[in-house]
Write a structure and sequence with these properties.
75% helix, 7% strand, 3-stranded antiparallel beta sheet, 2 domains, mainly alpha
Length: 127
């Protein structure tokens, strides 16, 4: 039973990335497609890696962190990779929590400033 392979164009479409992005991920060795002449094909391994890369980016991990993390599976196995992920996730969760808290303060400050400006505008209009 043959494994499904995606062409370069199909990979871009499936993950909604530009050709430039896909080529860059290959260049920095996040992805290693099979090559047949000038054609590139992406099997289940590369599709899974792309899923992890995009998820990791959404969580705020750098591409270098993701590259090292993916490489760890190949060189050290699953357990060290999972342990490294827990450390990465803890670090990122702390950062995201701090950013969320700072954003909450900023939103409240902006609301207060907006409300004060609206009040002044109403007072000025009624004078």
């Amino acid at each position: 039973m043959g494994e499904t392979r995606l062409s370069f164009k199909e990979m871009c479409t499936r993950f909604e990335v530009t050709p430039r992005t896909l080529r860059y991920y290959e260049y920095i060795e996040l992805l290693k497609p099979e090559k047949d002449g000038r054609n590139r094909f992406y099997g289940p391994r590369e599709v899974a890696r792309m899923t992890l890369i995009l998820r990791g980016k959404r969580f705020g991990f750098s591409l270098e962190e993701l590259r090292q993390w993916l490489l760890m599976y190949e060189t050290k196995g699953t357990k060290p990779q999972l342990e490294a992920f827990v450390e990465m996730a803890d670090r990122q969760l702390a950062l995201l929590t701090k950013q969320r808290d700072e954003l909450g303060v900023t939103i409240e400050d902006l609301k207060q400033l907006r409300d004060e400006a609206a009040r002044l505008a109403r007072e000025d209009a009624s004078s």
